[in-house]
Amino acid sequence: MKDAHPDTIAAQALGWIDETTRAITPPIHVSSTYLRDPDNQYRSGRIYARADNPAFDQAEAVISALEGARQTLLFASGMAAATAVFQALSPGDHVLAPRVMYWSLRNWLLDFAVPWGLDVELVDMTRPAAVQVALRPGKTRLVWVETPANPLWSVTDIAATAQRAHAAGALLAVDSTAATPLLTQPLALGADLVMHAATKYLNGHSDLLAGSVSTRQDNEHWQRVRKVRAQIGGTLGSFEAWLLLRGLRTLHLRVRAASASAQRIAEHFSGHPRVAEVLYPGLPGFAGHAVAQAQMRGGFGGMLSIRVRGSADGTLDGEAAAIAVAAHTRLWKRATSLGGTESLVEHRASVEGAGSPVPADLLRLSVGLEHADDLIADLEQALAAR
Ligand SMILES: *Cc1c(COP(=O)(O)O)cnc(C)c1O
User: Fold this and answer.
1) Closest by alpha carbon to 255, among 331, 203, 194?
2) Given ligand 1 and candidates 101, 102, 155, which is best to mutate, with the most ligand atoms within 8 Å of its CB?
């Protein structure tokens, strides 16, 4: 099954059958504690649910199979997963992170990781030469990239960055939330770790918070990531693990449908009189298109952003126009998050606040599973009404 197509791995969730009941759908394991053997051993390998839970096994195995990973760990959220990778490092370690990245992780790095002694440097990850200059051989422990990166969808060349990171003795970790394992396999391109906000596409129904980190190698850093989960306790709940597994079974269908619609929507609004720019890796004129084409397959994902033009008479600037467009959408729901069945629109600058590289006229669009014609018509009427 591990060598099957991703569609088959996802649809059957690796084909597990419950040993005791022959159930095709797994039970929800809720026990927080496990019986110790009479001779004082724990042969089951399970002790306490903060460290581990049988509810995780199948979802972790499915994500590992889809990513070509050695192991995967589920966490209570994408942020719990991402921060575990950094918390496994030591004070004084130098790490590189992107200027354009998921805002909450950038804020955590600056608000907590730096005061706790991590030497964090933000660089332009779209330029491998800039990464080369920032790397300090023997001192840089981790390079963190996100591709395509929220919410400008900037593309990072994973293979080129991995090569440079490894030459300097650093690990490369990729936040692949927007790409999903269907469209990009960072480990096959040379990355050491791949992280997902499983809250988004892996689950796909906007009904849970979860995160995952997968590794190519079982090394010392990975053992510390495991300890972070067990000791700090950013552990996923049983019911959420079960919902995640259920969502994973349709990952391939959802991601392909969202990508196809996003491509259509991006093409439709390129050159639109009320749209200054469409940011989408699938557009030939987009800065990261060539790299995206080389490292993504089967589509460019369901996320795009548009920059809205202000009114010609100057009464409405781009920011006010963008907020007005979001106010007039009916199908596109004004909400944060992404990767669910329903399409979402968000004025990102309002969310990210000061220090964000996001232009004020930008609307982030998460394309869901509605018909693309309906989504286009709704955005057309909202742009006309702004
Ligand atoms: C949502 C998101 C996260 C954080 O995930 P949570 O589950 O909300 O903690 C991290 N990275 C990216 C790219 C995201 O979209």
Assistant:
1) 203
2) 102
Whether 316 contacts 386, CB under 8 Å: yes
d(CA 218, CA 53): 20
**pLDDT tens digit at each of 386 positions of the chain:** 778 999 999 999 999 999 999 999 999 999 999 999 999 999 989 999 999 999 999 999 999 999 999 999 999 999 999 999 999 999 999 999 999 999 999 999 999 999 999 999 999 999 999 999 999 999 999 999 999 999 999 999 999 999 999 999 999 999 999 999 999 999 999 999 999 999 999 999 999 999 999 999 999 999 999 999 999 999 999 999 999 999 999 999 999 999 999 999 999 999 999 999 999 999 999 999 999 999 999 999 999 999 999 999 989 999 999 999 999 999 999 999 999 999 999 999 999 988 889 999 999 999 999 999 999 999 999 999 98
* E strand map for 171-272: 171-175, 193-197, 211-215
Q: 324 with 311: CB under 8 angstroms?
A: no
- CA 37 to ligand 1 center in whole angstroms: 40
Query: Residues 52, 175, 361, 378: which is the catalytic one?
Result: 175
Residues in Cβ contact with 281 at an 8 Å cutoff, skipping those fewer than 6 apart: 148, 153, 155, 288, 289, 292, 296, 300, 301
DSSP code for 178: T
Whole-number Å distance, alpha carbon 33 to ligand 1 midpoint, is 30
Q: How far is CA 151 from CA 113, 272, 356, in A?
A: 23, 20, 10
Whether residue 148 is preceded by a cis peptide bond, meaning omega within 30 degrees of 0, is yes
d(CA 219, CA 158): 21
pTM: 0.98
Ligand 1-lining residues (CB < 6 angstroms) = 77-79, 82, 102, 105, 146, 150, 175, 177-178, 197, 199-200, 209, 211, 338
Amino acid code (one letter) for 254: R
Sequence-ordered list of residues with C-beta below 8 angstroms from that of 293, at least 6 positions apart, any chain: none
Using omega within 30 degrees of 0 as the cis cutoff, is the peptide bond preceding 151 cis?
yes
